[in-house]
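Catalogue entry: protein

Sequence with per-residue tokens
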Amino acid sequence: MVTVLALSAALAYGVADFLGGAVARKSTALKALTWCVPIGLVVVLVAALLGGGSASPGPLAWGFAAGMSGGAGLIAFYRALARGPMSVVAPVSALAAAVLPVAVGIAKGERLDASVLVGVLLCLVAIGLVSMEAGDGGAAAAGRRLDSGPIMAAVSGTCFGVFFVLLEAAGDGSGLWPIVGARVGNLLVVVAAVLFLVARGRGLGPRVSGRTLIGLALLSGSLDAGANVLYFLAVHDGLLSLAAVLTSLYPAITVLLARIAYSERLRAVQRVGLLVAAAGVALVTVG
């Protein structure tokens, strides 16, 4: 069941990131998140109420801390998506997000069967392969990369890795309420960022306008919230290292959608990465 839940989370995250990135490109990261995060909070609140459980302070606090990290990651991620190719940004973020939970899981004594371990390693390799972009070798290009997509993608991925770890630490004795705490943390970070920019007299950029763009933002936020729920269920049904790595395969979806919508070319190494990802998932499933 952990495999199905985690892969479903990856699918939802992948579509949500693509849609959120599309909105951010037309507006800004913060403007997109002011639509995505509130609707996500509504979605998880309804899910928590329907799912039962009690809003215990401890799990809520763990969820809130996870949400603070996830909120910072979302701002960095959406900014990266607005400034760099989706086919590069999403995989870099995912690789950083996968490594930390795997390290924490191993440190906690998690042990995987041989075939599952090989599958997890293949998935990590796949994320790395899909993230490779063509380099032009110039010093000016290197300077641009330090100030754009890939670096911010790595920052966002680290924040997401912390989010994955803290949600696992929240436990599963309180239903879905830790996810509600996480979305409140997301919202607080976004509001703080907006207030910071306003206080400094800086504009927030073009507003999200038009039914299509607003609809995409709302759908992105809803899918992201649903992915949070699926990951939370997955990580409490199985191992942290396994759930996090499978969930972190979401770039495959984002890359494919970007290929279709924006004609972003898949390099040969990225195609190999997708095949390696499929092999890794197959081994995990069989194991």
Remarks:
- Residues 1-51+63-132+147-286 form one domain.
- Residues 135-147 have pLDDT under 50 and may be disordered.
